[in-house]
Amino acid sequence: MSPRDRDRLAAPVVALYWALLAAGLVLYGVVVSTDQIIPLALGSLLGSALGTSVALRDVRAWFVLVVLLTVAYVGVPLGPEGASADHFWMAFVPAVLCSYASLAERWSLAALWFPTVVWMLTILDRTRGARTLDTFGVLLFALLAIAGLVFLRARETRRAGIWKRVAPTPIAEPRAARVEREKPMRPLVRTAWSIAMTAAVFGFAAFVAPRMWRVEKTQHHVPHDGVALGIPCCPGDDTYERSRVREYLDLGRGHDSGVDTWNECMACPSVASVAQFVYEGSSYAVHASYDSDPVGVSGDVPVVSSHWDGQPTTFAEIAPPGEHYPVEQDNAIHDAPAPRYASQVTPRPVPAPIAPAQPPSPVPPSSMHPPAPPAPPAPHAPAMVGAHTAAMPSHPAGDDSIGWLRWLVLVTGGALAGQLLLLALRPIRRAVTLRHFRRPYWDETVDQRVSNSWQLALVGLRDAGWRAGEAEQPQELARRVDLPELERCATILERARYGVGLADDDLDGMRDAADAVYRDARRQVGPLARVLSWLRWPLV
Amino acid sequence: MSPRSDAISLFVPPFVATAFIIAAYNHDRVFATVAPALLALWLVMMTALTVRWIQALVAARRLPQHASSWSRLQVLTGAGRTMMWAGAGAIGVAAVSGWASASVLGVLGLASVSIAVTWTAIVAGSERPFRDAVIERSLLPEQAVEGDALREVVRVRGLKIPAGTRLFVTGRAVRHGTTSRYAVGAEASGGQLELESDLGPARRGDHRAPPLAWWLGDVFGLVRGPIVFCGEASVCVRPKPCEIDGVKELLGRGGDAELARPTQHMPTEGTFRIREYAPGDDTRRIHWVRSLQANQLIVRLPDEIPPAEPRVRVVLDDHLWGAEMLSCHGVDQLLDSLVRVWLGVGKQLAEAGSRVTMVATIDEGNGPHVVERPLAARALRDAIQLGARASWQSAMPLAAKLKTRGVRNVVVSCHAPQRVGEQPDVTWIVVPEWCWPVEEPAWSVASALALPYPIGSGENRFGRRRADQLRVATMRRDRQLLTESISMFAGLRTPGVFVARRVHGRIALEAAS
């Protein structure tokens, strides 16, 4: 197999994989957050480029692993530290492996894993820590399932192409398989099958997979700067709980958004509980301890240290006044045990929004400062006693994402409407074209009118499933298709083509014969096929 | 892949996934919903397969030649098996780590394979799609000459290719020839389809192409249906006689056929040689028809008859014990070279005026038997047909093909001269091994860094690579056996032995002594 053939066969698979990955990254950046997109996108794109490149050069898997380990061994210690670097490497390594596996023979499911992770960041973001998907999540999930099946199909098409050309023993040079006649209803059947298969796989996955998701809770230690957070400062434990669906990448708003139990208790003077509070420009890095408590498996759970950038402060800063955290919508996880803090107190809504807080003083990242003594509560903020469910402001990115979603829906709807319009216009195009074949709108030469009539006959034959080969001569087609008038058409056409000369009545005879062929051919199929033929384009 | 590994891949992964779910979610209602859902999907799949298995079992009892019913469980391709296991593994990862993406992929993988197996078992799990199909396979041109470009054309009508499946066809027309492979989508279902491929240069022989293998596989490459064999074909590739120098030396130094003399019987005789009239020619020899055509006087010349018409039997020594069991290319190419030399010698002897009889052994299904065909200089057809059907055999020794009295035998052989019977008048033409090009497959040393075939090809699998290496090793070993079995050097110095050597594209006969 020539390198050109190999690249031509690999192109759809590579394009699909990259489209899937790029779409996931764009969705994450648009819908969830633009803060973490840079390391994620860098890791994903660089890793995928490396994986695709080595795969297209037929490099063995062990060598890819060695190169990857070497790059990681050298790059991790020498590279920058921090959450962004972690995210970069967490994206880079699987991106290399999955993009390599996308062209390998059997590992299609493994190849889909990393793009799925990227997509799940957006999908899970909309779950708000629950095992249920909102409408947008369902839409994304369906798109992911469709893309997965299309990816599998493209891989199999490539495999079949390679199978036809590559073997240890010599392979015969295949010519294109020629379908001389097809059943007119087959495209409809194939489309119906595709829809049914996709729906079945998506339906099963959408029913089963979310039930296996694990919701974990987080206990964040927050600084005692009530003013900075815009949350009333109150004594007690300075932790609050949030929930999220666990995922490989520790990113995404799904970690801490939506219907959360904000077991917030601003123990203002509790210095010991504050791990780190760093203000870097517009973002915060809060070291939080994640209490990985899988739902249904209480106790004996590890506490994982993690990073969480900026979002609490961002919440507080742009929280619209008047929005409150829901009280009894704890994670929307009804099978989870009650949050430990929420059960200790009687939740009550925050009666009034907090005034916009002053941003905390910038602190160099390298230095740790004990938190300042708690500022006195704002005059309009009532003191909170113990844990309570606090008002949860809307996610700022979520606010933006709603606009983006609207635009996305509009664009998608517009594209669909355009396609429907084009589909609806096909019968008109066909009618105009057939009218021109029968009676030209403008003066045309005799040869051209003969050719038009031949095209009319071919349209009728195509409606009945007959396909004319590219190199097939008219007389050959006439012999293959048992329609009496077609031979006359072919004879007149060949006379016109080769300049033998046409008789006076040949033009009328050609037109009548072509009309007869058109009618007779269409009589061979059922009424539904005849109706569907009006939607077909191109006509022959 | 064995049915056992297929069965393991069908049975075990869903239970592995379920075990993970039970272990990880035993206190959760997840256990009550996910595990039954996966098991229900598996049960539907197994029900479809079981129905096909029972059908095949009943058919196998009625028709002993029917394929084993266990082959109905051999439905997963390599990608399908891997996806089944990877799906179970992903669910295990999801149960252990809790990653949502792993659970999505695991369910997606298991569901895809299960639904694909169910659908394929329903619509393509038996020979039913092929039952009404009309398959015509032809190898063109039907009467080819050695070296001609051979094409395979397969016409299919009425074959049902269900939606979501592809048709795969493969087969080999001639031994050691190219393998043709086709993959067609469902758009050709129920209609008319033409498949065509170039098989490359035709090789001598009366080939009976074995039937093609047909099967349906799903469009995701996870599942395939049972394999059906149909579409036999035949082609007769005639040998091409080669030009041989030094044939007249075969008849000895007496010059039996060196000089021809014209026929002097009747003035009106003569057909093949004509020329323009020259003053003094016998006017009775004017060929009036040709003269009118040429618009000038043409006279016919008397035909020439050799002064002597030695009877020569050109015998093809196609007796080589165990040759039919050798898998190397050389054994076929050796016979092709023998036939080319055999025909070339016979043709040139006939052109020199000898009465030539071509002798070879053919097998028409009831054992090999000797066939003799007279050869005229301008009527090679019968001899060429005989050469096309010649094949190695071990039942008919050379002595059975030699006549001992009143005729000269010219034996074209790859062996050293051997003692035969009563030592008839035998001239040997030995075609040495170096007379034909060596086309044995070479050892393919795979790079340690690069895959031997494009990534994604099934030929990169370790098992297939190993099988291919074994095939090459067997062919090279057989070639060695062939070389040893035809060792000829000991007898090449015997008087009356000629060696056929390739000189500038022609074959030259050189006296070995």
Describe the model.
The complex is a heterodimer of chains A (540) and B (513). By secondary structure, chain A is an alpha+beta fold. Helix content of chain A is 52%, strand content 7%. In chain A, β5 (277-280) and β6 (283-291) form a beta hairpin. The two termini of chain A are 32 Å apart. Residues 223-228, 254-267 and 269-398 of chain A have low confidence and may be disordered. With 513 residues, chain B is α/β, with parallel strands linked by helices. In chain B, the strands form 6 sheets. In chain B, strands 11-22-21-20-19-16-17-18 form an 8-stranded mixed β-sheet, covered by helices on one side. A 4-stranded antiparallel β-sheet of chain B has the order 5-4-8-9. The longest helix of chain B is centred in the first third of the chain and has 34 residues, at 29-62. The radius of gyration of chain B is 33 Å and the shape is elongated. The model of chain B has no long low-confidence stretch (mean pLDDT 84). Chains A and B meet through α5, α6, α7, β1 and β2 of A and α2, α3, α4, β5 and β6 of B. β2 of chain A pairs antiparallel with β6 of chain B.
Task: State the gist of this model.
The complex is a heterodimer of chains A (540) and B (513). Chain A is α+β, with helices and mostly antiparallel strands and 540 residues long.
Helical stretch tally of chain B: 9
Radius of gyration of chain A: 33 Å
Secondary-structure-based class of chain A equals alpha+beta
Estimate the mean pLDDT confidence of chain A.
Answer: 73
End-to-end separation of chain A: 32 Å
Cα shape of chain B: elongated
Helical residues, percent of chain A: 40-55%
Work out the largest interface and the residue count of each chain.
A-B, 89 and 90 residues
Query: Low-confidence spans of chain B: pLDDT under 50, at least 5 residues?
Result: none
Major β-sheet annotation of chain B: 8 strands, mixed
Q: Mind describing the biggest β-sheet of chain A?
A: 5 strands, antiparallel
